[in-house]
Amino acid sequence: QEQVVESGGGLVQPGGSLRLSCAASGFKMDPYAIGWFRQAPGKEREGVSCIPGSRGSIYYADSVKGRFTISRDNAQNTVWLQMNSLEPEDTAVYYCVAVFGPVLCDVIIRTRQSTTYEYDYWGQGTQVTVSA
Q: What phi and psi values does residue 65 have, to the nearest 5 degrees?
């Protein structure tokens, strides 16, 4: 069964760090772009970061630039989101999505914020809570 699973969320104090993982199973992650989205209660889904599969540039939302770093290891079939200097505003459920093909990250972020595409793989999410 093809799926992606997020892990690494938790409760952290402001200024702290977390490292989220997005692990794929049932398929090879190599040709997939991987996006990270988050959704806070009462708010719309927001694109956070994206790492391309075969072409294009890494994307970061302005709100996380300089604090979050996305990386991937295709041999481990995993993408990570290193989150530093966390703020209460980062509190949300974080989801990763695997998008097949040479789709640019800015397109993924723009389209997947409001639409679910049939051939994407979405995880179940991991909760991140930033609170003192």
A: -60, 135
Q: Read off the pLDDT of residues 50-95 as tens digits, 9 standing for 90 and up.
A: 999 977 899 999 999 999 999 999 999 999 999 999 999 999 999 9
Other beta carbons less than 10 A from residue 102's beta carbon: 12
Q: Give tens-digit pLDDT for 26-59.
A: 999 999 999 999 999 999 999 999 999 977 899 9
As a whole number of angstroms, the distance between CA 19 and CA 3 comes to 20
SS3 15: coil
CA distance 10 to 118: 30
Give which of 59, 46, 31 is closest to 95, Cα–Cα: 46
Separation of first and last alpha carbons in the chain: 39
Are the C-beta atoms of residues 38 and 45 closer than 8 Å to each other? yes
